[in-house]
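Example record

The entry below shows one chain as it appears in the dataset: sequence first, then structure tokens.
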Amino acid sequence: MKFSACTAAFGMADLKKIIDTSAKLGYDAVELTAALHLPVESTPERRKEILGWIHDAGIVCSALHYIFDGTIRLLSTDSEMMNQSAAYLKQVVDVAYDMECPTVIVGSGGKTRSFEPDWDREAGVKCMAEVIRRVGLYAQEKGVILAVEAINRYETNFLNTLEEAVNFVNMVNLPNVRTMADTYHLNIEEVNPAETIRKYGHTLANLHLADSNRQAPGDGHFDFASVAEALREVDFKGYCSFEVFGLYPWKLWYDTFEESVEHMGNGIKYARSIFG
């Protein structure tokens, strides 16, 4: 199993320090928290610099996540906003391409990807699928996968379960538009997370690891062993990324860099003992 560290798990520390620390802790890759560490307006020189740090650390960039900056409403029937969303996502794909990164995670809750009470759901789904298909075709030319994430009901009211995410990507119907799961969200939405992985794991491009309390694996009560077995059964080849930021509503990451290192270090030791 390949493990990646989401850069936001270390807060807003120096990015080179985060990359070097992730490699020293034994991670195979970093998953860049794009809106915080590498936004779409970043220059080619900045991207080249960060890619050099990653290469020097002996690891790779596995994915981009947290890609939206608050200006985009991905779920919209307004043609102007659809065009704006598609243009923005294509810029994210360009960042991924420049970072030699195979996957862009299409997550985000709140108003970015939620229905208002009076909206026509069928029309909204079709419009978002159209945007993702447009971007997916562009990403296909760049060799980039779009991974549509299932997110729990307390963060969005659309695509909460992995089954719903699978149905959506089937509507888009492109080989490089796949799904993304997160053990924190699985713990909330799925009756049996392991069985869900067995049923839909063939569609997964990536998996986020966070315990039941959204902290590092081993810090809560989630049954990682059963999910690890299910991943082996479906022959999952993607990265398992530690997305443990968003610990509480008032706190996005650990209080200190040293605390982050402790939890992320213990977490990967625990994960390797479970996942192999």
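Notes for this example: The chain has one domain: 1-273. Residues 57 and 188 are 36 Å apart (CA to CA).
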